[in-house]
Amino acid sequence: MADPSSSFLCPITRELMTDPVIDPDGNSYERSAIEDWLKQHSTSPITRTPLRLNDLRPNRALRESIEEYRNKQSSSNTITKSKPITIVNNQSFDLKVTSSWLNDFTHISIQPPEGIGIRAPCDICCVVDTSGSMSTNVEIQGTSNDKEGCNLSQLDLVKHALKTIIHSLTQNDRLSIVSFADCAVIVFELHQMDDEGRSNALAALEKLDENGSTNLWDGLKTGVDVLV
């Protein structure tokens, strides 16, 4: 049996659709799946833009194409002798945990199992400490326990980590950046991580500098407010 086109599969259930509907953005879903989604959410599961039940319309052209595919597969199955298929689930659900201890500090690393399929879109708000203490130079401890400077501040390392997050997101994800010192500031509003959004997020990140005190509570509250 030939594999169906990816457009025939519901992005929520990943199964062949029987009653496809289409939203204003041109995304199609199995009717029952998107109706169940919208009972708990008010946004598209793909673009995160506002979406309501009455925005959906039957996708008749897609339905006819899927029915044509089903009919062809049905005809093919009556001619060829089917063979038993062995289904093997290679997905692992084991966590890999390693730990080390040095000078009264414990480092624990947890590696999650490799996922399969397409992950759900996500909204991320990065709350960044930009107080004066973040200008402190980072020191690296060598094998002989000697500490060496690397001409990088703590904020430089945080920026590098955020760049990794930004580049790992897809256009279906959204990101916001909040900085806090004396008070919290939204330096990058929640936005899709398409090419334009990624470029603007990186530009906003580069403008962060160290100053002021550490109003952590205002940073956390503002970050939560962005996502609510």
UniProtKB/TrEMBL annotation:
Pfam family, one: U-box
Domain U-box: 3-76
GO molecular function: ubiquitin-protein transferase activity
InterPro entries associated with the record: Ubox_domain, VWF_A, vWFA_dom_sf, WD-SAM-U-box, Znf_RING/FYVE/PHD
Any one Gene Ontology BP term: protein ubiquitination
Domain VWFA: 123-228
Gene3D superfamilies: von Willebrand factor, type A domain, Zinc/RING finger domain, C3HC4 (zinc finger)
PROSITE patterns: U_BOX, VWFA
Name of this protein: U-box domain-containing protein
Species classification: Eukaryota, Metazoa, Spiralia, Gnathifera, Rotifera
